């Protein structure tokens, strides 16, 4: 169940969370640069630093096509480094001054706060800056709805500056789809790939989330944005993991395969299952076959039973 997609095996009635200690004060920051501000070189350096830096530092990278403020009527790409450090501002500025000089981080860019307030900041920095309290994390606006698509990839070798420039051109051409680069390394590298169903451990520099959201409920808008995501995903093929082209289970992506649960159910499950679970897929099939042999708990991408 831990990383194997619990919905394939039953109904989870309870769970236990193991807490870990965090400092009384942590630090967050967000630094944004566009292509005319040397964003490409920043992304090159981020790939070298983010997976290998201090284990207390998590630096997510957002990449989005936006309207240029420099050349009117054109688009550019904005790179945003959004980070959490389990320590003080002065220390993280010192670390990144040596490891990531192109970021140009200064103490004035940082906010020191409690860990729970860092969650609030990460969730909605504007609300945090306007005085929102942690209790607001419990709010649910059940009447709100928007549309979105997520896809995923894993990068195992740094993407060159020349290739990044090609990727920027494709993003600008498509117009809407962005990336979230989530660095791995650190504790992720210390856990063996077969320790839990989740297999994406050592050897992965970062995970890519393809991200697009829209509000227009029309079929044309849906088709347009889904096609944008598929096109960018196809374009990224040379730069990501292969055999299998791995994917992250929590970004459910029906484009990579679905199961009709007919006579070829196992083979259909292999298509998406090996992407999500790599070599752990067949172990999950064995468990599924024992605990749910009639395949009562199923969905389009659940673990199949063994034929």
Query: CATH architecture of the largest domain, please?
Result: 3-Layer(aba) Sandwich
- Rounded radius of gyration (Å): 21 Å
- What's the total number of strands? 7
Span between termini: 22 Å
Helix/strand order, N-terminal first: EHEEHEHHEHEHEHHH
Any idea what the shape is? globular
| Beta-strand fraction estimate | 15-25%
Q: Which segments are poorly predicted (pLDDT under 50) over 5 or more consecutive residues?
A: none
* Average pLDDT score: 95
Predict the CATH topology of the largest domain.
Vanillyl-alcohol Oxidase, Chain A, domain 3
**Biggest sheet, open or closed, and with what strands and sense?**
7 strands, antiparallel
- How many domains? The number is 3
Number of helices: 9
Provide the CATH top-level class of the largest domain. Alpha Beta
Strand adjacency order, main sheet: 4-1-3-2-6-7-5
Structural class estimated from helices and strands: alpha+beta
What percentage of residues falls in helices of 4 or more residues?
25-40%
Any descriptors?
7 strands, alpha+beta, seven-stranded antiparallel beta sheet, Vanillyl-alcohol Oxidase, Chain A, domain 3, 3 domains, Reticuline oxidase-like protein, globular, single chain, 307 residues
Structure description:
GO terms for molecular function: flavin adenine dinucleotide binding; oxidoreductase activity. Keywords: FAD, Flavoprotein. With 307 residues, the protein is α+β, with helices and mostly antiparallel strands. The chain has three domains: 109 residues, Vanillyl-alcohol Oxidase, Chain A, domain 3 (3-Layer(aba) Sandwich); 93 residues, Vanillyl-alcohol Oxidase, Chain A, domain 3, CATH 3.40.462; 51 residues, no CATH class. The protein is 31% helix and 19% strand. The chain has nine helices and seven strands; from the N terminus they run E-H-E-E-H-E-H-H-E-H-E-H-E-H-H-H. Strands 4-1-3-2-6-7-5 form a seven-stranded antiparallel beta sheet. Strand 2 and strand 3 form a beta hairpin. Helix 5 packs antiparallel against helix 7. The protein is globular and about 60 Å long. The model has no long low-confidence stretch (mean pLDDT 95).
